[in-house]
Design goal:
heterodimer, A: 83 residues, four-stranded mixed beta sheet, 30% strand, B: 887 residues, alpha+beta, six-stranded mixed β-barrel, four-stranded antiparallel beta sheet, globular
Chain lengths: 83, 887
Amino acid sequence: MDKKKRKIDLFSHELVPKHILLSKEEAEKLLKELNIRPEQLPWIKKSDPAAVAIGAKPGDIVKIVRKSSTAGEVIVYRYVIDK
Amino acid sequence: MSLYRPPKKIGAIKFGLLSPEMIRKMSVTRIITPDTYSEDGLPIDSGLMDGRLGTIEPGQRCKTCGNRIGECPGHFGHIELARPVIHVGFAKTIYKILRATCRKCSRILLPEEELEEFKRKMDEYEKRWGGLSEEISEELIKKASRVSKCPHCGEVQFKIKFEKPTTYYEETKEGPRRLTPIEIRDRLERITDEDARLLGISPKDARPEWMVLTVLPVPPVTVRPSITLESGVRSEDDLTHKLVDIIRINQRLRENIEAGAPQLIIEDLWELLQYHVITYFDNEVSGVPPARHRSGRALRTLSQRLKGKEGRFRSNLSGKRVDFSARTVISPDPNLSINEVGVPIDIAKILTIPERVTEWNIEELKELVIRGPDQYPGANYIIRLDGRRIDLRYARDRRALAESLEPGFIVERHLKDGDIVLFNRQPSLHRMSIMAHEVRVLPYRTFRLHLCVCPPYNADFDGDEMNLHVPQSEEARAEARVLMRVQEQVLSPRYGGPIIGAIQDYISSAYLFTRKDTLLTKEEVCQLLSVAGYKGDLPEPAIKEPQPLWTGKQIFSLFLPKGLNISLRASVCRKCPGGCLKEKCPYDAYVVVRDGQLIAGVIDEKSIGAFQPDSILHRIIKDFGTDAAREFIDKIGRLLIEFISRRGFTMGINEVEIPRVAMIRIQEILKEAEEKVDKLIESYRRGELQRLPGRTLEETLEMQIMKVLAEARDKAGDIASEHLGLENHAVIMAETGARGSTLNLAQMAACVGQQSVRGERIKRGYRNRTLPHFKVGDLSAKARGFVASNYRTGLDPIEFFFHAMGGREGLVDTAVRTSTSGYMQRRLINALQDLKVEYDGTVRDASSRIIQLVYGEDGVDPAKSDHGKAVNIDIIIEKVLSESERT
């Protein structure tokens, strides 16, 4: 086995939904729109491969565009946490 | 009706440990004597039944608060332990703390800088969440436990060994040394408040040393009441027994210490005290023999009182028993509405509804009061303006009482027709397991319900019992009526479709009734319509000469709402290979409804059955509302039952009898198949059989044999159904979807077919053969569980045995499935129970964290959808087309 980690684009796989890092302004706008604190969103670990791939840091909000069996395509948000 | 107001509002709940000072402070007396009662039957002072601990005997007054039984809440006492003991519940926590702290200075075994860092993290967490983080302390403990030299005082640390349940050893170079609870308490005492906080213990609520007990609280007698048997013998509660043991040993220990007894004896007694305190808290600690009653029964101590299904939480706090409820056997009544429930008169006389007296109902209520609790439409209680409750059972002059009635009084009157009640059958697996019904007071002793509501309750009448609850407030009744009434529950939220609908005979009857050849005379039509409750005019008869005759379709159409348009394939549809002829279907299996007129097709399961989405019933509910649907089901139900009772519909053993010639043909087919199987086996033995990809030779053979036999059975079934004819009642039931399948018919009339265990032909039993009747290694059809007989003629003994094997597997499977799926359901409900859709449309959990931004990601209510989609184009097209057709 090759010891060196081969870099692959996670998001090229069909089952991995698109993860997009929100800018600070976007994040604030979103929180205001939903009228919530960031911890009230579902969480994603900063060590999650997808979070690592887009360079998300704790405190960020990640936008995920997923396929859904009921609605075709849905957007969900996750709050990046430590550990 | 007054709203229920909770007497106090809970502001906060705090969990902590009791400090020894606190225990002494809340104690009314120190308990010293292990005895409970003196010889003359009076409680001994500073004994376990001391009068100051509360009262349990009627008439007696509490020596502390002066209240009688019921009002006195009970008061704690305390025991001063001669030596400290470990609290079992915290044994593991103590171990963790001991490992993370220094044996000399009791500081956390981490340098100051790291502690600062942890403190910073902990402060941040506390600020945000208002509590200490278990995770952070866990990390700290893990890190500190690895240190072997104290960074504060330089003391070399020893490894600490924890031996369940409450023994700790220090592994010094000289060998293991036992730590006494005194030493442990010493160490815990020295931990600073700041360090305690980092260890996950909030010093305000719980100091670490409080986990080692020096004082034991004695619960009030109301918590452990003694019972007096008929013989006059007092029997004490398990907790009291355990406390007696503790006090006795405590006393001996103290005496021995004071007398200066040898260390060994003291240690033994101390150990014994520890044992009693452990079992007092929890009598099911692993590694500790449970304390037993004299009879050998294990004592039920504190932990056992709380734990498990029969514990305080699941049994007494989450599970409550209610008043105003009834339970009895259920039986069917097709003349009720689906909204109704028949309530036996005896039950109606016990269950009551509180009705406030007003100037409009005062006369009526006076009548009820006069009739009293024993004559049916009566009343059981009056509640006067001052809140006094008068029991009419013991009222001497009810007439006078009735006259004293004035507006504002509340009369608890008997249940009467039209009252709304909740009806339930366990297991309550979905929301349709509890629905609101309107009361119909009926004679006899069973609850009566409409047959169409059997599917949502999953009820039948082989002895099933159901529960009934009477809502007592106006709000509850209104909610029940608007949200929970049966007619509001016809559409299942599980999928878009009605869960309430015609079943069994209703379907057979609907088929017979709407067939082309059903013609009814005026007399028949009038009788049927009057039973159904139809109040309109008769339509023009389809045939006028020689006498007026109406078709079943015409009469059925009378109950369809005007403006209903739908077409669908009936259950009897043959799925013609040449494509569907639609309206011109030779079997009349294409149902067409135009403007509420049934133009073509027979009505069967697909049109009015339960669990049938896109049926006529489904369209009626969605387009004309629940009232229309209820009326449709009620009226059609009565009509169809009347029709099928007049016509007669039976099934006997002769129903599945087929002519001799057919029987012979079937036997030939089966014989051929068996020969074919023999040939396959032969070719396998010779090694000529071709292996299928991915299969072994044996598997290939088995598969081919199974295929040949299944084909043979199907062929036999086809022959049988050819000869059974469409007029056969069994065939009608199978084709219309009323009951049974064509496979069931084939098994009854032609051939039962292959029996299987674990999806294979039967092969277990003896070595390489199923039964001793067969040769070793016999692979033939008969030897491996093929049943060539049918249920009508009967099975031979060998076949019967194989059939029982297959049947047993089925039974075991259902038993296993129900238990595992029940458990799965419990876990699922537990995880999802407090999710709700908030006003902003998001789905949130109890702590208002977002689960979904829109319910189901598309915001569709499945009960109101078509196959989960918000709009169904096909139906709209049909609607528009048929409307343009008319104009």
